[in-house]
Amino acid sequence: KELLQEIEISQVENKEQLEAFRLRYISKKGVVTELFEGLKNIPQEDRRAVGQELNTLKNLAQTRFQDFTANLENAAENNEDAQLDLTLPVAPNLQGSIHPLTIVRRRIIEIFERMGFNVSYGPEIETDWYNFGALNFADNHPAREMQDTFFISKGEGAVKDDVLLRTHTSNVQIRLMERQKPPIRSIMPGRVFRNEAISARAHCVFHQVEGLYIDRNVSFKDLKDTLLHFSKEMFGKDSQIRLRPSYFPFTEPSAEIDVTCFICKGKGCNICKHTGWVEIAGSGMVDPAVLENAGIDSEEFTGFAFGMGIERITMLRYGISDLRLFTENDVRFLRQFEGA
Length: 340
Ligand code: PHE
Hints:
Its cofactor is Mg(2+). This protein is an alpha+beta fold.
């Protein structure tokens, strides 16, 4: 009974006193253990009752010990709070930033949406027909060779077509024309894949935006005006475009589109290799054979198509000279686009 009272009224103010309490009432060498040991000398008939009282004692000692420990810990924390320097500047709240390729893709979409284009998507894993065949590539066209295309499986049996990673976004043109009758005015952003060694100027994964406009009486002038307007919106009023004759199996005539180098404004720098011009897109009038492949009457409808590289446009817009920066996830690079 005395011991019970002793435990009830005892107080602990620091770690040393806590340890003293533990030694006296809790530890194997403490008084409570000692009493338990004396239990064997108690006559059989009283042993049970005394044992119960000892248990009460032991439990009380343990609860008190737990409370003391918790109180001391709280006190220590409060003490730390008291030492807080509230005049220190707040730690910056680091937010992620939008990837430059995303910024530019969104900007491209915005510009074309205001010209009445909608946005369409297609698969990255594609059959030979949608990536090449329907786009008028000859069977022996070099782009089908292993060195360019990542093939997934060879067509055999019921699956007649080779399956591959699309090498351009032009596959979406065909899928769109198959399911929608003209007028069609759509842009198609997405990832494309080519088996190329990674360097400052090339990568095996990159991004394109395909554009397609099919209606009655669509002319080459519409193509030129659309891309000129785009480049002025993207790079500023002073920007010019230049068309160079080119060849694509799915357009006729075809042209490559250059824009004035945004970085040196035409004066010549590393990014434009001192020519003042940077190629940003391939384009042309959709070949009648392609329209027919997708079930569109080429007597009634004409159209233009273009495909531009998002990486190239981003490099030009922000003066980035190494393509690898886009995929290395170096925060020193990415943070520069905070708020862009
Ligand atoms: N698909 C072509 C490429 O990847 C670009 C292109 C698209 C050219 C549409 C003409 C028309 O190089």
